[in-house]
Amino acid sequence: MAASQLREVHLKTYANRLRALDLGIAKRLLASLPSQLQHEAVDGSPGEDEGSAVRLAGDSRQDQESITLAELFRTLAQHYGYPTMFADLTLEPLVAAFFATHTSTGGRYEPIANEPGVVYRWPALRIGKVGLHLLRRNPPAHEYDLIPALDLTHIHSAFARPRNQRAVMIALAFRPFQVNVAEDPAGHPILEAPTHYLVTLDPTTLPTCERFQLPKGAGFDVASIAHDSLDALFPDRIDLGYSFISVAALLSLVAIDPDIYGSGTGSERSTFEAKMSAARTLIQRECFRLLPSFSPPSLDMTLEEAAMTLQLAAAHGRDAARLPMGNREKREEILPDIDRWSERIAEIGRYADQLPVHAVENPQDYPELVDFFHCDPLYRETVERQLKAVRRWNKVLQDLET
Question: What is the pTM of this model?
Fold first, then answer.
C-alpha cells in the first residue's frame, strides 16, 4: 500500500504546501449532505453544475454567478486549515482588524499589546454574486490587471466559519499567460502543477494596495467591540464545514481510489469503499446533529465503527509515509498533517453522537431528542456559548452597517 500523499504530483508540490483536496473524494462525500445543500446555488437559485454544491455551485464562467466544485472545495479547504495557494481576505473591516491585532498561540487568539496592527485594502470589481476581480491597477488596462477572487459571504449558514468571517478568497498562484484558467491544457488543476511552473503574487506589493496602521493595543478595543468574536469566527462545534473538510482532508492524505491510482483489484476497492463508508457515516451523523429536520439514511456502520475505520486508515497512512521511498524531508512533513487531521476526526467522533444542536438551543421543542441523546456538560456549554456568540456577532455587524 502507498498512501496518496506519496503520489508524484503531491511530492512535486509539497515543498510549497500546494496539496489540494482529492476532488474525487470530496465530490463523493458531497452526496452525504442533504439535497438542499447539494442542489442550491447562491441565495437559493438553481445550480447547474454536476451535483452542484453547498449553495455555491454551478459553472457559470462568464459572469461568475457561481463557482465550480473544484473552486469551492479548494476555497473551503483553505478556510478550514488545509494548505492551498489561496489567501484569506474579508469584506468586513472588523474581521480584518481582529486578525491584524491578534496573534494565535495553540489555536487561541490573544490581542497584541506592544505592536501596531496593519489592515490592507484593495479595490475590486464585482462580476457576480460570487465572483470578484481585485485590481492590480485602477482602472484596469488589461486582463492581467484582474486577479480572480471568490466571495463566500453567501455560503450556506451550515458552513459557519467562512460565512461569519465574511470571507473572500484570492488566488495567489498563476500560470503565465493563463491568468484566469483554472486548469492547464492537459486538464490538470492549476494548484496541482509543479511549483516551478507557477508565478506567485504578493498582493501587499501591488500599487493599488492601501495600508492602514492601527495603534498599539488596538486589539483590546477590537475585542471589546466584537465581544465573543473568537467563538463567532471559529464556531467549530456548530460548523458542518469544519467536519466535512476535516474528513475530506484526512481521506485525501490516506485513501486512494484504485480505479485512478491503483490496480483496481477487489481488495483495493473494498478497502477504499470501507473508508468512504466510514466517512459518509461520520458526515451524516454530523448533518443530523447540526441540521434540523435531517434524517440520516440507513448507515452501513455504527459511529464507533466509522471512527475506528478512519483512525486505522490514518495509521496505515503513517506506515506508508515511513516507507523508504521518495523524499524523506517531505515524508516527515506529511506525518504531522496526518496526525493533525486524525486528531480532528477523533474529536468530531466524540461529539457526533451528542444531543443535536437545535435541541440544545430549544430543548422544550425537542423533548424526544433530549430524552434519547446524551449531552455532555462541556459539550452543552460549548454549543450554547458558540450559538450565543454567533448571534451577538451578527448583531454587531448589523449595527455597524447601520
Answer: 0.84
